[in-house]
């Protein structure tokens, strides 16, 4: 029997967190390659530290993309985030690139040839999840954690608040009764700030953002509301802590409310099923919940490198289903092509749409006119309702 009454916590980090700076640069490099050749193969990692940006990885794409281009898009990403600090400055940081050509062995296994369809870019397991806790069908703790930081970043970018710096973290603990969230029990926000913006002024500013995000009456007790609990947070970003691509995979997905297969997303082109199949699994799970077939849906896909079909598809409706899970799994396998090529084509993933995914989560976002967040569409709902209406 599943637990119905409990506390659950998720955290988010802002676009200025060192790991998210690294993710943003990696995805900006990916977008640059895709803008020149939509079939580029890219696997790029980034490390940022005190006034240093280092990128490395394997690519196969247009010769038009030079090291100067990679430096330009990397610096532009850092500038857009807002780093003009003595210890990390978009213009002054040293930039080094160790990007090289993709392994021929990987290319041989992944490329389509003759009667062989395009294979998965790696082996692995990927999960997708959706639930009815929020309007965007995401778990509430991670969604509210994202929204708090997004609201603060929006104010900072718009000049509506003075003294905030880009690096920030949030953490929300919710109380669940009968399996649904009912109120916040604690909220933690740590935000980098200028020395003069601290104490009660900063606390009251953050309080306003938290109260605006949480549903009415959900604010935590005053003694469980923590703003910069260490006292101050002046030194931050890559100057305060080294950042690496792919270190915030739980922030990127479901805040720990659902499993994660282990693979990071940022810097990887969509032939890498770590990314594309995780998007597809979310797409399927979200449509199941949006169709009213369950209140929770967890989907797992698995792949082998160089093999075009999934090795398995697992559906778990977590005791909230109104349909047979095995029938649902068969429906997906028999009617939806889950090969890496078909996933890319269905979700139109060969577009330069990835820089905006690098912060505030890859899921629970609004599909964009440019094709971004296409995996958040609910265009399977009518089909699913019709299939299970009998």
Descriptive account of the structure:
The protein is an alpha+beta fold and 390 residues long. Helix content is 33%, strand content 23%. It contains 11 helices and 11 strands. The chain has a 4-stranded mixed beta sheet, with helices on one face. Helix 1 packs across helix 2, helix 4 (140-158) packs across helix 5 and helix 8 packs across helix 10. The radius of gyration is 21 Å and the shape is flat. The two termini are 29 Å apart. The mean pLDDT is 94.
Features:
33% helix; alpha+beta; 390 residues; 4-stranded mixed sheet; single chain; 11 strands
Give a short synopsis of this structure.
By secondary structure, the chain is of the alpha+beta class.
- SSE string, helices as H and strands as E: EHEEHEHEHEEHEHEHHEEHHH
Q: How many strand units? A: 11
Inertia-based shape: flat
* Strand adjacency order, main sheet: 1-6-7-8
Number of discrete helical segments: 11
Largest sheet: 4 strands, mixed
Query: What quaternary form is this?
Result: single chain
Tell me what portion of residues adopts beta-strand conformation: 15-25%
Mean pLDDT: 94
Which stretches of 5+ consecutive residues score pLDDT under 50? none
Task: Report the span from N to C terminus.
Answer: 29 Å
**CA gyration radius, whole angstroms:** 21 Å
Find the structural class using helix and strand composition: alpha+beta
Helix amount: 25-40%
């Amino acid at each position: 029997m599943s637990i119905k009454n409990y506390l659950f916590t998720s955290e988010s980090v802002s676009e200025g967190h060192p790991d998210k700076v690294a993710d943003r640069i990696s995805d900006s490099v990916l977008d640059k390659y895709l803008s020149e050749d939509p079939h580029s193969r890219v696997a790029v990692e980034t490390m940022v530290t005190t006034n240093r940006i280092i990128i490395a990885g394997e690519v196969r794409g247009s010769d038009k993309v030079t090291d100067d281009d990679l430096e330009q898009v990397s610096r532009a990403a850092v500038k857009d985030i807002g780093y003009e600090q003595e210890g990390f400055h978009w213009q002054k940081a040293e930039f080094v690139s160790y990007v090289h050509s993709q392994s021929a062995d990987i290319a041989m296994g992944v490329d389509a040839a003759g009667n062989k369809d395009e294979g998965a870019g790696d082996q692995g397991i990927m999960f997708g999840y959706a639930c009815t806790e929020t309007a965007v069908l995401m778990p509430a703790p991670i969604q509210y954690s994202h929204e708090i930081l997004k609201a603060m970043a929006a104010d900072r970018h718009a000049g509506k608040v003075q003294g905030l710096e880009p690096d920030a973290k949030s953490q929300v603990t919710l109380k669940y009764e009968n399996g649904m969230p009912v109120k916040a029990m604690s909220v933690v926000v740590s935000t980098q700030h200028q020395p003069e913006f601290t104490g009660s002024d900063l606390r009251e500013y953050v309080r306003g953002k938290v109260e605006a995000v949480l549903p009415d009456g959900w604010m935590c007790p005053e003694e469980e509301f923590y703003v910069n609990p260490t006292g101050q947070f002046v030194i931050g970003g890559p100057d305060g802590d080294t950042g690496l691509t792919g270190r915030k995979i739980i922030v990127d997905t479901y805040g720990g409310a659902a499993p994660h297969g282990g693979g990071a997303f940022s810097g990887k082109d969509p032939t890498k099923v770590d990314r594309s199949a995780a998007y597809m699994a979310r797409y399927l799970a979200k449509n199941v919940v949006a169709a009213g077939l369950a209140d929770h849906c967890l989907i797992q896909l698995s792949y082998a490198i160089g093999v075009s079909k999934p090795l398995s598809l697992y559906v778990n409706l977590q005791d909230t289903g109104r349909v047979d899970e095995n029938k649902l799994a068969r429906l997906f396998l028999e009617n939806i092509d889950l090969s890496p090529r078909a996933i890319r084509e269905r979700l139109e993933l060969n577009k330069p749409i990835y820089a905006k995914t690098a912060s505030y989560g890859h899921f629970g976002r609004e599909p964009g006119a440019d094709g971004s967040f296409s995996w958040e569409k609910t265009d399977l709902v009518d089909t699913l309702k019709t299939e299970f209406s009998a």
